[in-house]
């Protein structure tokens, strides 16, 4: 694996833990796709730093479980005007 990919995976993991960011927010912040964020956190980071991968993965699972609630709130706000 190339060094810049390893560095990016670590940065993404630290960013997600520090900000409790969603996959979409992390992708936008780093200028990559959502699938690349998933691959970096779940696959690459697990090889590089399993502890960091586990912590970031927990946050992503929480965000995934709550996404339907966020979507409902966003829809309600959209049509509230």
Summarize the structure.
This protein is an all-alpha fold and 81 residues long.
SSE topology:
Blueprint: H1 3-19, H2 23-30, H3 34-48, H4 50-80
Helix pairs in contact: 1-3, 1-4, 2-3, 3-4
Name its key features.
mainly alpha, about 90% helix, single chain, elongated, about 80 residues
Characterization of the model:
With 81 residues, this protein is an all-alpha fold. 88% of the residues lie in helices and 0% in strands. Helix 1 packs across helix 3 and helix 1 (3-19) crosses helix 4.
Terminus-to-terminus distance? 50 Å
Name the poorly predicted regions: none
Count of strand segments: 0
Arithmetic mean of pLDDT = 94
Structural class: mainly alpha
Share of helix among residues?
over 70%
Instruction: Output the helix-strand order.
Output: HHHH
Strand content: under 5%
For the report, how would you describe the main beta sheet? none
Number of helices: 4
- Using only C-alpha atoms, the radius of gyration works out to 14 Å
C-alpha geometry: elongated
């Amino acid at each position: 694996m190339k060094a810049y990919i390893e560095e990016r995976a670590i940065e993404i993991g630290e960013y997600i833990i520090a900000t409790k960011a969603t996959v979409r927010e992390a992708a936008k912040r780093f200028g990559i796709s959502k699938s690349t964020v998933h691959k970096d956190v779940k696959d690459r980071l697990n090889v590089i730093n399993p502890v960091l991968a586990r912590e970031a993965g927990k946050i992503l699972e929480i965000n995934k479980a709550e996404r339907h609630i966020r979507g409902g709130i966003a829809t309600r706000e959209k049509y509230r005007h």
